[in-house]
Amino acid sequence: MKTRKILQVILAISLILSALSTLGGITASAASVWDGSKMNVLWYAKDPSAATFTITTAEEFAGFAYLVNHRDANTKYREDGTVAEDGTKTTKGSAFAGKTIKLAGDVDLASKPFAPIGATGSFQGTFDGSGFTVKNYYVTTDSSKNEVNAGQYYFALFGTVGVGAVIKNLKIENIVYDVNVLKSATRIDVGSVAAYIHPNKGGSCIDITVKRMTVNITKEEGATYKPRVGPIYGCYDTKVGTTKNISVTDYQVNAAAGVEVQTYEGGLVGITNANSNTASWENVTFSVKQEGSGSESVPGSEPGSQPGSETTPPTSDGFFVLPIVALLCAAGIVLVIRSRRTA
């Protein structure tokens, strides 16, 4: 009898542990993986007037980008929310001004060509990553193009960050860009978090980590445009807003012979036009990929090359143009900006 009771207790404990293990598996669920084509907008379309929206899947994340990039157009979708030309329902796109988007799970974009959020138009709301990760983010020249302004290309998770926008609490892993400079190019901005921070009332980027960022640059014969390339932003064009607690590790630029880029001294951004800058920068860092891992250095990444880096964010008197024909080795370098708001 005693043996039977002991066995019953052991069996009960096993069942409890099994149940707890199952619950733990649900909590630590795998990232939602994108198939490279499906986009879902039902999370938005069911109540576009809502102040807060939650995105859980890769399809919804892709739908989010689609809505921003087609903010002035009607989007057709099916009953299940899938964007499709044969959809029987419609919802208008949005810049999400005054609204908040919350990420509720990890997203794996599976290295499929993705159109940056705001490659056309701009994102003007708040994107809260809630500590989750967007990984395997891949952008090509074709997927980065501005559909309205021909010749413009934006390489970053957010193409244009517009009036009052905030991007925060986000992790990004394994960014790869294939940039081909075309003869018709009039603008190419390359960054991790944002390609272009809009002037005057541009946005803020806070508490973001980026692991592994590779920029491959080629050019069409006869092309002359020099891409604006930085590990944080491509073009930092605002006099307001906050850039705080951002780190980029394993940053690498691979450029074909003859390619030239614009990179601001210090290497954080491609270019800045903010002469009288009152924006706030604090604890912003990047490091190039380690020597011996097949990497080359980043223009402007030498220690101390950031003018006034202890007190000011980038201003427009400090950018330069560098040919990346033979990049110098700068293994393991980390550049740190710790700044205060300045008048």
Radius of gyration: 22 Å
| Count of the separate structural domains | 2
Outline the biggest β-sheet: 11 strands, mixed
Low-confidence stretches: 19-27, 291-312, 316-343
How much beta, percentage-wise? 35-45%
Search tags:
4-stranded parallel beta sheet, mainly beta, 2 domains, disordered C terminus, 13% helix
Write a concise synopsis of the structure shown.
By secondary structure, the chain is mostly beta strands. Helices cover about 15% and strands about 35% of the residues.
Q: Would you write up a description of this structure?
A:
Mean pLDDT is 81; it is low at 19-27, 291-312 and 316-343. The longest helix has 26 residues, at 2-27. This protein has helices spanning 2-27, 42-45, 58-69, 141-144, and strands at residues 32-33, 52-55, 74-77, 89-92, 100-103, 107-108, 126-128, 133-140, 152-155, 158-161, 166-181, 187-190, 194-197, 204-219, 228-229, 233-236, 242-255, 260-264, 269-272, 280-288, 319-323, 334-338. The chain is built from four helices and 22 strands. The strands form five sheets. Strands 1, 2, 5, 6, 7, 8, 11, 14, 17, 20 and 22 form an eleven-stranded mixed sheet that branches. The chain has a four-stranded parallel sheet with strand order 10-13-16-19, with no helix packed on it. It has a three-stranded parallel sheet with strand order 9-12-15. The chain has two domains: 1-30; 31-338, no CATH class. It has 343 residues and is mainly beta.
